[in-house]
Amino acid sequence: MTVSNGSEPRDTGGAVPDQRTSPPEDSLKPSAEAPSVSDLAAGYAEKAGLHRNSAGHVDMLKSAGGWQGIAESILPGLVFLVVFTVTRDLTPALVAALAAAAVFTVVRLIQRRPLTQALAGVVGVGISAWLANTTGKAEDFYVLGFFTNIAYIAAMVLSIVLKWPVAGLLFGFVRNEGLEWRKDPERLRAYKLGTWIVVAVLALRLVVQVPLYFMGEAGLTALATTRLLMGAPLYILGLWVAWLLTKPAPQPSKPSSSEA
User: Fold this and answer.
1) CA atoms 42, 44, 45, 47: torsion sign
2) What are the tens digits of pLDDT across the range 172-191?
3) Using an 8 Å Cβ cutoff, are 213 and 164 in contact?
4) Membrane-spanning residues where (predicted)?
């Protein structure tokens, strides 16, 4: 009697086992339909912060975060200005600004919405509050925005120099152009121009606000006001202008076979 040790083939009743391996049943089933270019474009644009409306254009308001996103970017700075103007005390103004930013995080938790924007706002307000509290100067609450603008300007100018303009990377996917626009010199020039528009918006903020910052507390109200007006509203305007200037030229319709 032979004892099997588990490594020997079992008795198959004389039949020779088929050594060929057949593909699993799942592999024989048709695969799910691959996502379309439109779906990929929409997903990429959304991750980049851009959203399309039903007409295929950029939804400017939604791209700015909607009304809630705009409020999240405006209210902490506004609360800081109001409280400091009333109390002339830096500490309660900073606490109030941080509290305003924290409220939006709680609201997003209740709404079960992504916390990325709200948390970024809390971190930004926290750093701004730390800077102002460290120096004891109320105007330093706004200084972080200067460095943020400079960083964005540098990145966008670099993208133009490298012929990967940011406007093309964003708008190209919204328009289902993918990266094909880089092969067309005219489209490349258009997206460079669109990127320069956004750079101009960011540079304009610095041109207007930096002199107000150096005025100290005397320029605080004007600095805070221009920060609000040149924040989301100016960003939406610049984005809209860049979108219009980079619009592809209409393609001539092909003659039908009956006209040929």
Assistant:
1) positive
2) 887 888 888 999 999 999 99
3) no
4) 69-87, 93-110, 115-132, 152-174, 195-216, 228-246
As given in the structure block, the two tokens for residue 225 are 């006001």
Can you tell me the distance from the alpha carbon of 87 to that of 95, in angstroms, rounded to the nearest whole number? 13
Round to whole Å and give the CA distance between 123 and 98.
9
CB 91 within 8 Å of CB 129: no
- Rounded to two decimals, the pTM is 0.71
What percentage of residues in the chain have a pLDDT greater than 90? 42
- Report domain extents, the chain: 61-136, 142-248
Average pLDDT over residues 133-141: 93
Sole residue written with tokens 């669109």: 194
CB 144 within 8 Å of CB 121:
no
Q: How far apart are CA 154 and CA 148, in angstroms?
A: 10
Instruction: Provide the token pair at 143.
Output: 């200084």
Collapsed DSSP state (helix, strand, coil) of residue 52: strand
The pLDDT assigned to 122 comes to 83
| Helix ranges restricted to H, 37-89 | 37-47, 60-63, 66-87
What confidence score (pLDDT) does residue 239 get? 85
Rounded to an integer, the average pLDDT of 50-67 is: 59
- What span, in angstroms and rounded, lies between the C-alpha atoms of 136 and 84? 12
DSSP letters along 105-160, please? HHHHHHHT---HHHHHHHHHHHHHHHHHHHHT-GGGGGHHHHHHHHHHHHHHHHHH
Closest to 46 (Cα-Cα) out of 155, 174, 152: 174
